[in-house]
Design a protein that fits this description.
CATH topology of the largest domain: MetI-like fold
Largest sheet: none
Radius of gyration: 23 Å
CATH class of the largest domain: Mainly Alpha
Shape: globular
Structural class: mainly alpha
Strand content: under 5%
Number of helices: 9
Helix content: over 70%
């Protein structure tokens, strides 16, 4: 098992070393600029900062707070692991609900003009409303768990719906006619023509939706006072002026968002290989 993981790691590094090098270079430049800005604000070199210096800690201080947040509990008796678990549960529940509703709805609205014109007025009425506007009512009506889940659902639902709808509508009519000429049934058209053609659009919607979903859960946990989650942790630390811990929570969100979209990308490649598309 360990040998297989090492072999996979070597292949990944060998084929993507330039991308990894650029990634590390970009992060190094960002951290360096951050350090210089913090030094300027704190008056270490070569200028003097103001009161705003208290809100911009050094990267090393954020790193120390990041490590400490996983090792020691906060004032609520929860470590960062507990906050991550709370946020992940809400994001996963909202994502699965959004996928379960948006995928069939997008396929129907993309392939059926009747479904399209029935669903479009409702979708277009709710789509311009920011998910964050629903936070107060969702928390009151659905509670501290399902309220944030509903906010995540709204954030992920529309990117998946519109991408699936556009993808299923963009299927080349020549492919449909060719499949019918070969005797394909409606179920065959759907499973072997429409769905494979729509899959890249679906994965794009999932990737975009997950990014929005993380923004939604952070806002819902910050504004809803849910008592747990990385967003709640960030707001709580900001309120107590522990800014290095606040930034550590923001780093955690960045890592979680990157990991979830990365998993979506790996799943996309697996599906493509399974369907013989790659």
């Amino acid at each position: 098992m360990v040998n297989n993981l090492l072999t996979l790691l070597k292949k990944t590094l060998k084929g993507n070393w330039q991308k990894l090098a650029l990634t590390f270079l970009s992060l190094a430049v960002f951290v360096s600029l951050w350090s210089l800005y913090a030094a300027w604000l704190h008056g270490d070199w070569p200028f003097e900062g103001g009161l705003i210096a208290l809100t911009v800690p050094y990267p090393r201080e954020v790193l120390a707070a990041f490590v400490d947040s996983f090792q020691n509990a906060d004032v609520n008796g929860i470590t960062m692991w507990g906050h991550i678990y709370a946020s992940l549960k809400r994001v996963l529940a909202g994502f699965l609900l959004a996928l379960a509703v948006a995928l069939p709805a997008g396929l129907l609205m993309g392939r059926s003009s009747t479904s399209h014109w029935l669903g479009r007025p409702i979708v277009e009425s709710f789509r311009p409303i920011p998910p964050l506007a629903w936070i107060p009512i969702f928390i009151v009506v659905f509670g501290l768990f399902w309220g944030p889940v509903g906010i995540v659902f709204l954030g992920i639902f529309f990117p998946i719906l519109y991408n699936v709808m556009f993808g299923s509508r963009s299927v080349d009519p020549i492919l449909i006619d060719a499949a019918r000429t070969l005797g394909a049934k409606k179920s065959d058209l759907f499973l072997k023509v429409v769905l494979p053609f729509t899959l890249p659009y679906l994965m794009t919607g999932i990737t975009v939706g997950l990014g929005i979903g993380w923004m939604c859960i952070v806002a819902a946990e910050m504004l809803g006072g849910v008592g747990g989650g990385v967003g709640y942790y960030i707001a709580d630390r900001a309120g107590s002026q522990d800014y290095e811990y606040m930034y550590a929570g923001m780093v955690v969100i960045a890592i979680l968002g990157t990991l979830t979209t990365g998993v979506a990308g790996l799943l996309e490649n697996r599906i493509y290989k399974w369907m013989g598309m790659k």
